[in-house]
Amino acid sequence: MKIKIKTVHTSRTIMFAEFEKVMDYASEDNNFFEALEDNVIGKKSNSGIEKTTNYLRQLYGFKMEDAPFKAIKYFWNLVESNEKSLLAFILAIRNDELLSQSIPVVSKTEIGTKATIESFEQNIESFHPARYSSKTRKSLAQNIASSWKQAGFIEGKVKNIRVEPKVSPKIAGFAFLLAYLDGARGAFIWSHRCVKALCTSEQILRELAKECAKMDLIQYQHAGNVTTISFSSLILKIGIDGI
């Protein structure tokens, strides 16, 4: 029996436009589920509402008792408007298996060259040999490429050119925090999928960590081969328990 893969990309992308509507509508009162029930996403049929709501909940959760969602709610009001799609993408990477497995495709594609749909298809096949038909695999690849495009790593309706989005200290801090919440410590944070999805070098990650420390988002120390990263102040601000 095939093990079910945790992904929305068989049918959807990260759906940033819909996610943004829910967050902007409900962040003040934390009434995210009510927002979904009230169809703030603007779907025209009950079927469309139900399917999109289920996919959004699978990707983002919307549960205030979940630390990763608490974290994105906090950062949602901290980052610039043009950074929010990347913020959503980082949480989606954490929660979607197929999307996270596509990180090598984008990270190994040189800036200014084409991120081909075929390369995404080949990557899917390498992780899941003979699992999908060629038609399904192509659809998956197109959806995954669209998610990277929404996050700012690919641009162009047809050409799919690899570009480099600006990763601010706040965006990096969010990725570092999700890694920490998943149990990564020290330099192992650089290897977590949420951080690897930023598609940047360890040197730049360390520079971003220094900037995060100046903003009191993290506590960061690096000496020799020892890296220490903690989030005591941030976790207290966000109200995350049990860490």
Descriptive terms for the model:
mainly alpha, 3 domains, single chain, 243 residues, two-stranded antiparallel ribbon, 4 strands, 6% strand, Arc Repressor Mutant, subunit A
Q: What are the SSEs and their pairings?
A:
Blueprint: H1 16-26, H2 32-37, H3 46-60, H4 67-76, H5 84-95, H6 97-101, H7 103-107, H8 117-127, H9 134-151, E1 154-155, E2 161-162, H10 169-181, H11 193-196, H12 202-214, E3 219-223, E4 226-230, H13 232-238
Antiparallel strand pairs: 1-2, 3-4
Could you explain the architecture of this structure?
It is a single chain. The protein is mainly alpha-helical and 243 residues long. It has 3 domains: 79 residues; 65 residues, no CATH class; 70 residues, Orthogonal Bundle (Arc Repressor Mutant, subunit A). It is 53% helix and 6% strand. The chain contains 13 helices and 4 strands. Strand 1 and strand 2 form a beta hairpin. The longest helix has 18 residues. The protein starts with 15 loop residues before the first helix and ends in a 5-residue tail after the last helix. The model has no long low-confidence stretch (mean pLDDT 94).
